[in-house]
Amino acid sequence: MKSKVTMQDIADRLKLSKNSVSQALTGKPGVSEATRRLVIETAEQMGYVYGKDRKRRQPNAPNGSIALIASDFAFAQKNFFGEIYLSIEREVRDRGYELLIQSVNQTAAAELRLPPFLENRAVAGVLTLSHITTEYVNAVIDTGIPTVLIDHHHPDIAADCVLTNNRFGAYAAVRHLLELGHRDIGYIGNIDFSPSYYERLDGFRLAMHEYGVTPNEEWIVDRALEDHSYIINLVKQLENYPTAWFCVNDGLGFMLNSALQQHGFSVPDDVSVVSFDNGYLSRIATPPMTTVNVDLELFGSCAVELLLDRIAHPNKPLTETLLQAKLIVRESTAAPKRA
Fold this sequence. Notes:
- By secondary structure, the chain is an alpha/beta fold.
- The chain folds into three domains: 7-46, no CATH class; 65-164 and 296-323, Response regulator (Rossmann fold), CATH 3.40.50.2300; 166-294, 3-Layer(aba) Sandwich (Rossmann fold).
- 42% of the residues lie in helices and 15% in strands.
- The chain has 14 helices and twelve strands.
- Strand 8, helix 12 (250-262) and strand 9 form a beta-alpha-beta unit.
- The longest helix is centred in the C-terminal third of the chain and has 17 residues, at 296-312.
- The radius of gyration is 24 Å and the shape is elongated.
- 40% of the residues are buried.
């Protein structure tokens, strides 16, 4: 007696080709909807296991493809978004879907030019990675295709999303500095670039408020450019310096760390630096930077799970999933030498 039901067993029972059974079970084109339903029902009756990890594809999805779209800029950030993409790719494949990828340049975003597979509704669902524009994301949603946002949200966008808990992550980072004894703490980020950076400023202010510290607004750099020359000039132009800085990402933290040392400061003896994301730059910095870890693999798996649930239950209330961000203490932070 066979212990495992195969596609060939289903094909033999229904007098279909194995290829037709495969197309039906994986949602690929080539079979009618009636045949697809018959194959799925027969597979369930026979106890067929879908996929090596026993993760079943949603049988009521319109087809077997899921789209991942992002701006050119986001796809270029390989150290951060690349890991999320790989997680999505694995999860989508394990669920029996095909992943279609499309980058969106500034012109396409401005003209609200959607990829053909969206205009033709040729995918079961859409994942958008990071920020494109609010208008563009809403144009995607207006196609009626189930859509989940990854690492982005906005009050004017009605969609499920998976986010880092930016406020609490930043709060933990700044609290770490406060508990070391720092009271003169600066913030560097660009709140116009991403809601995430605004939320991290909220977390910064929350920690300072709870410890009874009034931030020095001179040290709140909330329109910072992620550019070496800009950060070097920022350090040169300050008349008074905080004893610690919180940077909204590892790129800014790495640049600030280097600029401070070029200007004659020792990190962390003179100035402590904390960043966010726990990416490659935080690990290769000298000294390695205290940072806030974002679980990039969990981002991908949660997003795919949320999308498949939305496909199966299109009328459910919209949800935001917040992923915990954990502080990782390294050598770039220490107690201040001056009060």
